[in-house]
Write a structure and sequence with these properties.
The structure holds two protein chains of two kinds.
Chain A: E1 8-17, E2 20-30, E3 35-39, H1 46-53, E4 61-66, E5 69-70, H2 76-81, E6 84-86, H3 99-104, H4 115-120, H5 123-143, H6 158-170, E7 176-180, H7 188-205, E8 208-212, H8 216-222, E9 225-230, E10 233-238, H9 240-245, H10 247-253, H11 259-262
Parallel strand pairs in A: 3-8, 3-9, 6-7, 7-8
Antiparallel strand pairs in A: 1-2, 1-4, 4-5, 9-10
Helix pairs in contact in A: 5-6
Chain B: H1 8-14, H2 19-67, H3 76-92, H4 97-119, H5 124-144, E1 154-155, E2 161-162, E3 165-166, H6 170-192, H7 195-205, H8 207-212, H9 217-243, E4 245-246, H10 253-266, H11 271-287, H12 295-309
Antiparallel strand pairs in B: 1-4, 2-3
Helix pairs in contact in B: 2-6, 2-9, 2-10, 2-11, 3-4, 3-5, 3-9, 4-9, 6-9, 7-9, 10-11
The chains are: A alpha/beta, B mainly alpha.
């Protein structure tokens, strides 16, 4: 792939539900080895944009490309196979399953053993199972909760559940990781740990990160680029300093609780 | 949610957490099954054979309902497909029983794909309705077609030979079903601890999250539905040669409900629970036989009580 090509590129994405415009002609891109944030007032359409990228929503028009491959019209699992992994705004771990089993789900799309090889217990299937397990443990070690791998995932502390979700997304071996409000519900110490983790995901794993986040302090600290979405329209795009000084952004945030944080 | 292990039953089950104890328990159960007919006599042997048939059927439906979380209300249809395929091919076309087995499996797979492909894309409620209809269609077709023998069915189905051994007494069939049940347990265990088995649980717990992890949820559900169909069909094949005669009434909606009851009663997705459920469904009405016409009433009340006090099945849920 040519380096000039952005990793993720959205062109003219329109999404509406029953005549209500949610995303209006959105152009947006994410480069390689970068941390990019998507911010905006509540109801601006940030999560809807995530859902369009990951195939959960079907935009009426536009183009969404990863590495030059069109994602429009693909089902979510195909998008994941193409290299985009995500977490959810409200943590969605698989209940009554261990932390390790949760993370093993990420390897599903990178493995192949079917029913017959499992029933016969073929050597290839056993090797693949061992590899899936080993990779899941690696991902858990990376996010720092490998010692909890045998516990029920939903019995973990909230901050650790968020880490399981990130480990699970990393297990899909993505090129781009989408984090939907990863700091929501975390305390100051946990937020700092999360900042370090996101930095390491980019630096050590060479995975680009796109995050939606309300904690503007955190966004300003970590992002190389920031895009601002308001009423379904991208109103600004640039480095953190440019965004902080942009009058359109300040106007969009006026009257919002997080406006003061931004300024 | 994990239930606390508070009562006596849970404490007994907890004793079998270690693998060697589980294998030992499995060996003891198999040994008991092997000597059971000698000590219990012919009548009990026939009942136990029926219980083992239900073990295979319930383990098959457990893949669909317990693992993948798909409500199938017409599972007896696949039981019928297997039984009629063997009945028609051996009786009408004179094929050897063992040669007809692949046809029975193939027919169930085709039926599973035809019913599953369009409906598994929809919400799971639709599957319940479609499978309910499918069950009735199969039964009515069997009743009205000439090749299936109409309402009286097919009789005089040849009992099979295996390497010069003619399997034809109730005792011999009992052992055939012991082997079938053991195979069904091994297949279930291996599937449960495989990539596909985990995928079923992911899909059951959170379909969107499973899709987001790159799992083709429609394909995974179809695999569960077809594997369940194969279990049902093989059970039907052996059911047909055991009885030597089949009729549409063996494959009614009530039959589907009874198999589903075995799965839910024991505890969906838990193999020992499902086996226990199958034994309860077959043995309880027999044990209550002395009560005459009240036995079904008592059986129903018992089921209601179990569902009230252990809604996720008799077998305990593991929690860590």
């Amino acid at each position: 792939m040519s380096m000039a090509l952005p990793l993720l590129e959205l062109r003219g994405v329109n999404l509406s539900f029953a005549g209500n415009t949610v995303l209006d002609n959105v152009d947006f891109s994410v480069g390689r080895d970068v941390i990019v944030s998507l911010i905006g007032p509540n109801g601006a359409g940030k999560t809807s944009l995530f859902n369009c990228i990951t195939g959960f929503y079907k935009p009426q028009s536009g183009s969404i490309k990863v590495d030059g491959h069109e994602l429009m019209g693909l089902k979510p699992h195909k998008v994941t196979q193409a290299g985009i992994a995500r977490t959810f705004q409200n943590v969605r771990l698989f209940q009554q399953m261990t932390v390790l089993e949760n993370v093993m789900s990420g390897s599903h799309c990178r493995s192949r053993a079917g029913a017959i090889s499992a029933i016969l217990g073929l050597p290839s299937q056993r090797r693949e199972e061992a590899a899936i397990r080993a990779h899941a443990i690696e991902c858990l070690e990376f996010v720092g909760i490998a010692d909890e791998m045998d516990r029920d995932a939903t019995n973990l502390a909230y901050g650790h559940q968020r880490r399981v979700e990130i480990a699970r997304a990393l297990a899909t071996r993505p090129k781009l990781l989408l984090l939907d409000e990863p700091a929501a519900g975390l305390n100051a110490g946990e937020k700092q740990d999360l900042l370090n983790l996101i930095g390491r995901i980019r630096d050590e794993l060479a995975i680009s990160v796109l995050l939606i986040e309300h904690d503007t302090g955190m966004v300003m600290k970590i992002s190389e680029r920031i895009s601002v979405l308001d009423h379904g329209v991208i109103i600004a795009e640039g480095a953190p300093k440019e965004i902080q000084a942009n009058p359109k952004v300040i106007e969009a945030y006026l009257g919002q609780d997080d406006g003061e944080d931004l300024l | 949610m994990a239930q606390p292990r508070s009562n006596a039953f849970n404490n007994i089950i907890a004793q079998f957490d270690e693998p060697w104890k589980r294998y030992a328990a499995f060996a003891v159960i198999v040994a008991l099954l092997l000597i059971a007919p000698i000590s219990l006599g012919p009548y009990a042997t026939v009942i136990l054979t029926n219980a083992l048939l239900y073990v295979v059927l319930a383990l098959g439906l457990n893949v669909v309902v317990g693992y993948a979380g798909l409500l199938d209300l017409g599972y007896a249809a696949f039981f019928a497909v297997g039984a009629y395929t063997v009945g028609i091919l051996t009786h009408t076309f004179g094929l050897d029983f063992w040669l007809t087995l692949p046809f029975a499996v193939g027919a169930a797979m085709i039926a599973g794909v035809i019913i599953g492909t369009p409906t598994l894309r929809l919400r799971s409620d639709y599957l319940a309705i479609v499978t309910l209809g499918f069950g009735e269609i199969v039964r009515f077709s069997a009743r009205n077609m000439e090749i299936t023998g109409g309402a009286s069915g097919i009789s005089g189905i040849q009992q099979p030979w295996l390497f010069g051994w003619h399997i034809n007494t109730p005792f011999e069939f009992y052992y055939v079903f012991v082997v079938l049940a053991i195979i069904a347990v091994i297949v279930s265990v291996r599937l449960q601890h495989s990539r596909l088995g985990r995928a079923w649980l992911y899909v059951r717990h959170d379909e969107d999250a499973a899709e987001a992890m790159g799992i083709d949820t429609v394909r995974v559900k179809l695999a569960a539905y077809v594997i369940g169909a194969i279990f049902g069909s093989i059970s039907g094949a052996f059911f047909a040669v055991n009885l030597g005669a089949i009729s549409p009434e063996s494959f009614s909606f009530q039959q589907s409900v009874l198999i589903l009851m075995a799965v839910i009663l024991g505890g969906m997705g838990k193999i020992p629970g499902v086996i226990l459920g199958a034994f309860i469904v077959v043995l309880a009405p027999e044990l209550l036989r002395d009560l005459g016409e009240y036995r079904l009433l008592l059986f129903a009340v018992g089921l209601l009580l179990i569902m009230l006090f252990r809604p996720s099945g008799i077998w305990p849920v593991r929690g860590k």
